[in-house]
Amino acid sequence: MKRFLHGATLAIAISGLSATLASAPGVRAQSEPFLLSQSVNFRPPNVTAPGGRQGGTHRGSKLCPAGLSVTPLVPPTNIGLTLTDSPTIFVYLPQTSAEIEFTLLTENEDKVVYEKTFKVEKAGIVGVAIPASSDSNKSLEVGKRYVWSFSMVCEPEDRSADLVTKGFVQRIEPQATLKRDLVAHPDPMTRLDVYAKNGIWYETLATLAQMRRQTPGDAKLNAKWTELLQSQGLESVAAQPLVGPL
Length: 246
What we know:
Layout: H1 2-23, E1 56-57, E2 69-72, E3 79-82, E4 88-93, E5 99-106, E6 112-118, E7 124-129, E8 145-153, E9 163-171, H2 176-184, H3 188-197, H4 201-214, H5 219-231
Parallel strand pairs: 3-9
Antiparallel strand pairs: 1-2, 2-4, 4-7, 5-6, 5-8, 8-9
Helix pairs in contact: 3-4, 4-5
C-alpha cells in the first residue's frame, strides 16, 4: 500500500512539474507564434542615400499647369530596402496629359537597368513593377543600390523643364531569422508585419497596397496605410487613391 501511495505521489509530482515547466517563461515545447500588430510598426534600417527625399513642383507649362507636384513614396532618407530583384516603386502623380518616364539606373547613373514610359488618367498613387531578371535582362543584384526616377515630360522640346523626382533602392540578402519568418507565415497580413519590423520598405508598401486593392473598403487596411505613410512624413498623399499598378 505504501509503495502504491509513493508511486501515485511521484506521478502527481512529475505531472505538476511538467505543467509548471510548460508554462514557465523561456521554456516552450514549440516556437512562439508571431503576434500580429494592430498597427504597421515600420522600423527604418540604418541606411542613407545622398540628399533627402524630395518631391517636385512645376512652374507651369501647357502640359503641366503651375503647382503640379510629384511625391515619391520612400522614407525621409530617400532609400528603401528590398529582398527581391523586382520591387514595385510607388509615387504620387497629379492628373496631367504629360508623359511620365520611369528610369532605373545603377548607383553611378551610368547604366540603364529598366525604363518605362506611361500616362496617368487621374491623380493618385502609381506603382511601377520592375520586371524580374531573365537571361537577357538583369534587374537588381544583391548588395547593390540603384537610383530610380520619375520624370514628367512637361515640355517635350525642352527636357530641362522636366519635373523630376529621384530615390534609391537597395537589394539585400535576408538573414536566416527573416527567411524563417517569411516561410512560416505566408499569409499577407503577417508578412506585412514581418517586412515592416525588419525595415523592408518596398515589400511593406507593396504588400499593403495589394491587400487594399483586393478589399478597397476595408477600414482597417486603409487605417494601416494612412498610419504607415504618416510615420514616414507622407501624410500629404496618404488619402490619395491607388491608381496603379503598371
